[in-house]
Amino acid sequence: MYEAMMIAASGLKNQQYRLDTIANNVANVNSSAYKSVRLDFKDALYTAGIVPAKPRSPDGNQQKGHGVMVAGVSKDFSVGNMQRTDRPLDAAIEGEGFFELGDRDGSIVYTRNGVFSLSVEEGGDFLVNGDGLYLLDAGGNRISVPYGTDTISINTDGTISFSAFEEETTVKIGVYTFRNITGLLSVGDGDYAESAASGEKLPADGATVRSGMIEGSNVNLAEEMTRLIRTQRTFQLSSRALTTADEMEGIANNMRR
Predict the structure, then answer these.
(1) pLDDT digits over 25-39, tens only?
(2) Distance CA 230, CA 171 (A)
(3) Where does 147-243 show beta strands of DSSP type E?
(4) Helix axes 221-255, 2-27, angle to 10 degrees
(5) Which one of 101, 102, 188, 219 is separated from 125 by 20 to 30 angstroms, measured CA to CA?
(6) Which residues make Cβ contacts (< 8 Å) with residue 243, sequence separation at least 6?
(7) In the chain, which ranges are continuous DSSP H helix?
């Protein structure tokens, strides 16, 4: 009876995690470059047991557990819909790739959210994102806007052109990809950090940068609603199983009197 209650309880707990994940996806349906998340589950096998008919071993010859557990979090890195803004400092990446951003301490993160603006500082004007992180060029340096710039344009190869006093200066934006993009570490706000699972950054040669556009969220509302209904049904089933196990435990206790 105890195992039945533990199985049902694990189902309730993990379906709540799934519900929170769906809610987060739906809440970010309009967030720029947001990537939808999905929870994967597996059987909770954690006790080594022995089957008499099979050879014995120190680790046992079967695994036993109660219920389910979260196996991992899968992030969908498919490209979202492109949305035109006509802002010259907005940029979207078609294909696989990430913009490289850096802070004042030298920490590096990567993002597909290409909403940039000018930051006026004592050392000059720089291109930054909404969190104040500096957009870096192909050499890993902050992109500085020359004094007197009146026109800024971004080409499809990621080259930014600054026109000032009838002179033009160009800088190449750093756009990178990874051998395993699903191994990137999410650090919040649509930013990702390099990890051992993702491997080192590589030039995103196949990526195309679109000026005056941003990438929308890739959340599929119809799919999320389907997952929500399935989660609700599973939650109800686990709740009913827990109630039934509790009632059977009560009957067994009363029989002893």
Answers:
(1) 999 999 999 999 999
(2) 50
(3) 149-154, 159-164, 167-172, 175-177, 185-188, 191-193, 202-203, 208-211, 213-215
(4) 160
(5) 188
(6) none
(7) 2-27, 221-255
Cα 210–Cα 86–Cα 81 angle in degrees, nearest 5: 55
Amino acid at 252: A
Q: Which residues on neighbouring strands pair with residue 237, listed in sequence order?
A: none
Contact (CB, 8 A) for 194 and 118: no
Q: Sign (positive/negative) of CA torsion 238, 29, 184, 96?
A: positive
Q: Which two tokens stand for residue 62?
A: 């079967």
For residue 11, give the nearest of 65, 64, 68, 66 by alpha carbon.
Answer: 68
Q: How far is CA 103 from CA 93, 114, 136, in A?
A: 22, 16, 10
- 174 half-sphere exposure, CB direction, 13 A CA radius: 20
Q: How many H helices and E strands in the chain?
A: 2, 21
pLDDT in tens, 110-152: 999 999 999 988 778 999 999 999 999 999 999 999 988 889 9
Q: How distant, in Å, are the alpha carbons of 23, 90, 102, 235 from that of 191?
A: 20, 17, 11, 32
Secondary structure (3-state) at 11? helix
Look-up: residue for tokens 């570490």? 185
170 pLDDT more than 80: yes
246 CB neighbour count, 10 Å cutoff: 14
